Amino acid sequence: QLQLVESGGGLVQPGGSLRLSCAASGFTLDYVAMGWFRQAPGKEREGGSCISSSGGSTNYADSVKGRFTISRDNAKNTVYLQMNGLKPEDTAVYYCAAADLGSTYYTGTDYYTDCNPGPNFGSWGQGTQVTVSS
After folding, report:
1. How many angstroms separate the CA atoms of 120 and 73, rounded?
2. Nearest to 8, CA basis, from 133, 116, 131
3. Which of 42, 72, 81, 128 has a C-alpha 20 to 30 A away from that of 20?
């Protein structure tokens, strides 16, 4: 069973930076497309940052594009989210997720999936809280 555990959340001032980590166990991530998503109280899960299995391609929601960078180290079975220029509206619980193979496309070298927090992502971590406030 694939288990995902997020870490690195905390309190940061507006304009600050934070790096989140997602460690996987029970299964290798070598052939798994991954994503980071967030959810604020009373709101839908959104703000996707997604990466193909090899790290060869990425995709971002408009709300985080240009400020967030998703990366991965398959040798360490870990995915990262570097967050720069943080805003109060970035405050949320941040989750990492792994895509199901049945909802994954294959280009010949990469596995990738649509970057939305839907049923294509079958495995989710417990989340880590990020609070942006002065």
Report:
1. 22
2. 131
3. 42
